[in-house]
Specification:
single chain; alpha+beta; 5-stranded antiparallel sheet; globular
């Protein structure tokens, strides 16, 4: 009986310590995990690309910073639907679809950053 307990504890420890490839991004929509995996292979830029979760109009949304210059910074909901870009682009004011984003987005949490 003692050996069974020791072996069970050993297996539990091995499972608990197994590498999680999506560490820090668990619970995110699959399309965003895919986007993050793609961004990981992009060249490092300054400021770094990142994914930040916010609460916006009662729902979790994800704001993604673009890799470089004059690109929109898109926001997706948890169903992977594109909501708009609150900033970025040539004017820096986004695409106009969610102009109130930064005024109404709360609970900012960086979930991934390409360091």
């Amino acid at each position: 009986m003692r050996n069974v307990i020791i072996i069970s504890c050993g297996i539990f420890l091995l499972i608990s310590c197994a590498e999680n490839k999506n560490q820090g991004i668990s619970g995110m929509p699959p399309c965003l995990v895919t986007k993050i995996e793609t961004m990981k292979s992009d060249p490092k830029v300054n400021p770094p690309q990142s994914v930040t979760q916010y609460a916006y109009k009662g729902s979790a949304v994800f704001y993604i910073t673009a890799g470089c210059c004059d690109q929109f910074n898109p926001v997706y909901n948890s169903d992977c639907d594109y909501l708009g870009a609150p900033d970025g682009g040539i004017t820096g004011k986004g695409d106009g679809k969610i102009p109130d984003f930064f005024a109404n987005a709360t609970d900012k949490k960086v979930v991934w950053k390409n360091k």
